[in-house]
Amino acid sequence: MTRRAIDREDPDRLYTVTGGRSRAPEGALDLVALVVAEDEPAPGMQSEHARILQLCRRSPVAVVELSAALTLPVTVVKILLADLLDAGRITLRHPSSTPGPAQLPDLDTLKQVLLGLQKL
Amino acid sequence: MDSRSSDQAATVLGAPLRQTTRDALKIVITGGFAVGKTTLVGAVSEIRPLSTEEIMTEAGVGIDDPGRVPDKRTTTVAFDFGRISLNEQQVLYLFGAPGQERFWFLWDQLFSGSLGAVVLVDTRRIQESWYAIDRLEHHRMPFVVAVNRFGDGGPALAEIRDALDLDDSVPLIECDARRRDSAKDVLITLVRHLTRLREIVETTS
């Protein structure tokens, strides 16, 4: 289960997509940070950047969903998102939870989750 | 674009989040290989579970199957997830996280900011859950344990609690990961457990 399509691909693809960068920028994005496109894809834009803007055009999309839709590893998507963020083409809605190790969520959040689950 | 890519892109575009969604929460489902993590996620998710990959760090590569001839290609591990929109603003993501040691490097990312975890147990391979439970305790991540019953029989819950050396304060329940109501009960058990823990913190502080 650990070997997927990407392992059989030419590793050069990842190198090309990220322009040789292999590490996500500092202060890395959460997997479930929500991405909102603020701009249309521009002519001549790198195709992955354009795809991200298309995917996030109507509704916010989580980082991990972009990764699934593009079939690119999460780290690669984060690098692409940092480019778009720098260019002002996207905005982010960060999760309210504190990053890092376990901290119990507040009671109001838990109540909202419980209500949401009970509606299922 | 391969077919999985276009399928998954269609899922993302076909079932978008509400425009008003601002806050995404996480719960992690972990456990041994093929214990039903993705099945449980799929039973409650509003989208067909999606699969994605993360690049294995060097530390991870070192302990990835030592019997293999190392290759120079990028090594990735796959994980699955689904989601439940809770209300206009909040969405809950459910991640199926492999519990085995070689997936460690992924855990920090998955558990960062996570509400809590569910350990899914297959009674035929209880020992596969030990590692996940040990790691959760180490991370101080609150969790509940759900025994995925495949058909009838199997050891009683009390025996399983003993075999897992599980503290009495950790909820242990049975489930059928294929069934929506059962999977939903597992998640509700976790949220109630988290609520109790939080109330204890608030009354003692």
Features:
heterodimer; A: 120 residues; mainly alpha; 3 strands; elongated; B: 205 residues; alpha/beta; Rossmann fold; 7-stranded mixed beta sheet; globular
Question: TL;DR?
Answer:
The complex is a heterodimer of chains A (120) and B (205). Helices cover 43% and strands 8% of the residues of chain A. Chain A is mainly alpha-helical.
Explain what this protein looks like in three dimensions:
The complex is a heterodimer of chains A (120) and B (205). In chain A, strands 2-1-3 form a 3-stranded antiparallel beta sheet. Helices cover 43% and strands 8% of the residues of chain A. Chain A has 6 helices and 3 strands; from the N terminus they run H-H-E-H-E-H-H-E-H. Chain B is globular, with a radius of gyration of 18 Å. With 205 residues, chain B is α/β, with parallel strands linked by helices. Chain B has a 7-stranded mixed beta sheet with strand order 2-3-4-1-5-6-7, with helices on both faces. The longest helix of chain B is centred in the C-terminal third of the chain and has 25 residues, at 180-204. Chain B has a single domain (3-204), classed as Rossmann fold, CATH 3.40.50.300. The interface between A and B is large, with 57 and 73 residues.
Q: Return Rg of chain B in Å.
A: 18 Å
Order of helices and strands of chain A: HHEHEHHEH
Helix/strand-derived category of chain A reads mainly alpha
State the end-to-end distance of chain B. Answer: 54 Å
